[in-house]
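Box S2. Input/output pair 1.
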Amino acid sequence: MATRTDNRDRTRAADRNSSSSTRSNRSSGERSAFSWNGGNNTGPLLGALAAGAAIGIGANWARKFLMQQTEAMAGDWDDILALEHKATLATFDMLLTTGDTDTMKRTLLIKKLSYALEKHAHMEEAVVYPALRLANETVDADHLEHEHGYVKTFLYELDNMAKDSPNFLARVREFRELIAQHAKMEEEQVFPRFKTAIGEEQNAKITSLMNKEGVKMN
């Protein structure tokens, strides 16, 4: 007849075998649910997200990391700014599809627009426009920076305007037109001319400095 001691010994032996089997399976190729490598090139990005989600802290760091990766993949400084122009105009288009009863959606989109434009303007004013002035492109740099003042005025007006105002969409259309014309001047005239005049080293330096300023705003 098996004693209690015999039963306890059998149970402990079974637990040891189960634990040994689990370790063997992991070492033979199974990945932990918290593994940073997914078996492809997305490892670093997934790792940043997993770290923030798993430990509940560092969310801002993870977001900055992802922003850096996105901007790095976008290309040179002018490519990044052009990409942001497109994203901003897309936000305007979303606003223009709203109705007067969509007050919460309008409020959220205005906040999104404000953040995007403030970050964009900061990068240009801190890096790109000073570089233009040093390259004797002062007139265009001053003109473009002057237009940023109107951008801030529009943002202030829309932020404080009643979101169910019958004039809301009309002001959004005017604002979008200003941004579209501003972006067109930069992308088709000023930036291509400036980029052609500078060397690869200066171009890389502007890209690096602008990305650093962008991260500060995240």
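Box S3. Input/output pair 2.
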Amino acid sequence: MRIVSLVPSLTEAVAVSVPGVLVGATDWCTHPAGLGVTRIGGTKNPALDRILALGPDLVVANEEENREPDLAALRAAGVEVLVTEVRDVPQAFTELERVLRACGATARPRWLDEAEAAWAAPPALPGRATAVVPIWRRPWMVLGRDTFAGDVLARLGVDHLHAGHADRYPRIALEELVAAAPDVVVLPDEPYRFTADDGPEAFPGLPCALVGGRHLTWYGPSLAEAPRVLGEALRAALRPAAP
């Protein structure tokens, strides 16, 4: 079987669970390390001619990360496309099983069992906290309603303040974000690469948690360690400063 993945987290899931079937992946597919497959461009601008030249039996995609016109063009060329939808943690597990079966997995991978066990009783904070979660700056954009990352945080005890917004990724003025005075500002390193020197300075006086986007937004093998890694980062940011 020949598989092309247009989603970084699904690339990792397929590569480690069904070795040898993946023949193409996006430029953003960074895991597993040393993945030796043909690169076919970005998630939003894949090179369709490169994908077709690989002769895939299946292309795996996601309704949020990939553009429908690209997927429609692949179908029109005779390629089967499997499109996932992942808006919360339980749906991630369901969709991962569906993808792996479609890619030829004959057994459930151990990492998927470990991930489900980790999320069955994730380490919550001592009390619920509020957050704003920027995903971009210039302009500032944050998590809004109905997002996988928002559900991840909620299960760890963090309620982000724009969960009820009409948009899934609204643009919010920085002044409004700061004025909301959340308990913590969660700054992932993707899609915008927030770092200690690029992000926290915009929120003076507010605790900031720098987290890996792979743990906050990816649905794949990283789900097994995400509750622990994210929980540690959140607790460290919320810990009262020593006098």
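Caption for Box S3: Residues 89-102 form the longest helix (14 residues). The radius of gyration is 19 Å.
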